[in-house]
Amino acid sequence: MRGKRLHTLIHATFVVLCLCGEVVSADHGYRLWLKYERVSDKHRLQEYRRAIGAVVVPGKSATLVLVRNELRRALKGLLGEDLSVTAKGGSSNALIAVTPSSFVSAGVPESPSLLRSLGPEGYAIKTAVIKGKRAILLVANQPVGLYYATFHFLRLLQTGHSIAHLDVVSRPRIQLRVLNHWDNLDGTVERGYAGKSLWEWRQLPDSISPRYFDYARANASVGINGAVLNNVNANPAILRIAYLRKVAALAAVLRTYGIRTYLSINFSSPVSQRFEQGGNRKGGIGDLETSDPLDPRVRLWWKKKAKEIYSLIPDFGGFLVKASSEGMPGPQEYGRTHADGANMLAEALEPYHGVVMWRAFVYDAAIDPDRVKRSYKEFVPLDGKFRDNVFVQAKNGPLDFQPREPVQPLFGAMPKTPLMLELQITQEYLGHSTHLVYLAPMWKEYFAFDTFAKGPGSTLASVVDGTLQQYSMTGIAGVANTGNDRNWCGHLFAQANWYAFGRLAWDHDLGAAEIAEEWIRMTFGTDSSLVRTVRSMMMGSWSACVHYMTPLGLHHIMQADLHYGPGPQYDSGRQDWRSTYYHRADSIGLGFDRTTKGSGAVSQYFAPLSDLFNDPKSCPEKYLLWFHHVPWGYRLRSGKTLWVELCERYFAGAAYVDTMAGQWASLRHRLDQEIFESVKRKLEHQRIDSGIWRDTCSTYFQRFSRLPIARGQ
Ligand code: BDP
């Protein structure tokens, strides 16, 4: 009964949404990159109008309804034409979207080899002649593939591309493309800077916010096909039946958009509150006194829980697990390994084809005095010990989402375990939702990083997409930057990071500038000088942030806990969190010696990287202070001393923010005023902040170098 009511409710909300799709105008960023404003270039508009005279979408599935609605809504906006969408072909200049089951009725010829190459989510977009009539064909094996094709096709119109000769074939390089929401059940979001959580737990499952549909649609438009709804610091209550019903209601919305639902679980879930020992995270929701993964009662508890979940959510994706990390419970409390813990959960999910995403973000001080070495040391010996449906999910770097890090050396070092890459879209260490920092150039640097695991060309991308080590499953996660702010991400430009994550997860070969340009055209319009200006602001913004926060391989000198402003002198008394722990400034020089004479972290990389990093002469300067303690007077490749170069980078980084503010100001009359003003205010804030970073860090390090501050040009 309840299920039926829910279905009716979701359906009703869905219908209302489809009807009022075009109402929003001054949206303050709500419509994201899916604005569908009228095409401003007259020639293009004519070309599009001529090429699209009718729209044919046969089939009845809920996702096909989405395809139809999207096309109607978009073409009305972009072309100003109210084209009716029919199920039957026949007219000329038709846009025909088909899956194999309607090939015959639509008069589309079979093409088995093409279909095979598309896989379950891929698609083709082609200019074709069907029964003597010109048509544009969107073809996919599954409705969700057609939905992706639809967004691709519409993107061409939004960005002003010609559609005269279309020949696109696209399929995702990575299978699971998942957002990790660090959302708590009380509505707060850990490291979230865009308001409260999108999930209205109190109102669920009875009331379904229209925003869930918009969220799902935005994700689908960039190919994201999974969402972990809750924080990795998981509250065990998420697995109570009352919450699972709420989760099921969300899953029912997301499913139509091709998005699977996953949950973060607390390893102590089977433990009764009565046996809670120390710390509020210990007690779970079960009736056992243990969560030892080798205890048969614990294993049974998880099996029953899995059964219960799948009875409510038949396509549930699986569990994300933070265990034995930062106070979260885990198998190590019982003397068991990460593999023991992950395998127990994997066994429970296996009958339903669910996966475990077991996080490698662990840094137990007992493992090694150097924090960046710990995850590798714990996980590499476990390679080959995980069940087939377990991913080990590792952050891009060995420390913690710093403005810049070398790649986590685990990648490439676990050939028998599918490693899932975790990126952070929310800007925990990169100025929150206050700083304009476009992250695609950073992610591209990681993807291109050559691990040398199997000789040259063993890029991180090839590890993650499974081509290097033939992983049986592949995945990528992005820690989401969404919240219930009107513009979703707090900063309008933070939307570009959500967008870029999805695009790169689909195809890591896309260029950062190319993605920026798409986003700009879809968000602000296609005027070429506007596009140029905004693109130039975005493309240098990450490097500027690295310069004013952590130049030359410095890391973790942010204020503790908040991770926002500079805190180079901060000393909380905890070894790892003392900032000098990471930068090691002294009268001789600066930087963390991780060479073979120091902590030895260089040796976790494959040769020749290990040797390259080990020598300051060959170590890329972007990682210099990550791997070396360098004298203040040491000459860099520029011929300048470390001290001068360091100061100049701080100044250059802050100066870039001034430039961005000026560039933005030049666009005043070309933009919606609301949006213009909101970004302007953020840039003013960023200017002040970058100045604070520059001055705090340069004067702090001056206490050690005792040299005059060099401002550069
Ligand atoms: C750190 C965050 C913390 C997260 C942790 C994690 O500061 O809030 O819980 O990572 O990824 O970056 O588990």
Distance between the termini: 71 Å
Q: Please give the order of strands in the largest beta sheet.
A: 7-8-9-10-11-12-13-14
List how many beta strands DSSP finds. 16
At the fourth level of CATH, the homologous superfamily of the largest domain is Glycosidases
Question: Architecture of the largest domain in CATH?
Answer: Alpha-Beta Barrel
CATH topology of the largest domain: TIM Barrel
Note the beta-strand portion. Answer: 5-15%
CA-based shape: globular
Biggest beta sheet attributes? 8 strands, parallel, barrel
Instruction: Tell me which ligands are bound.
Output: beta-D-glucopyranuronic acid
Helical fraction: 25-40%
Q: Which structural class do you get from the secondary structure elements?
A: alpha/beta
Q: Name the poorly predicted regions.
A: 15-25
Mean pLDDT across every amino acid position:
94
The first-level CATH class name of the largest domain: Alpha Beta
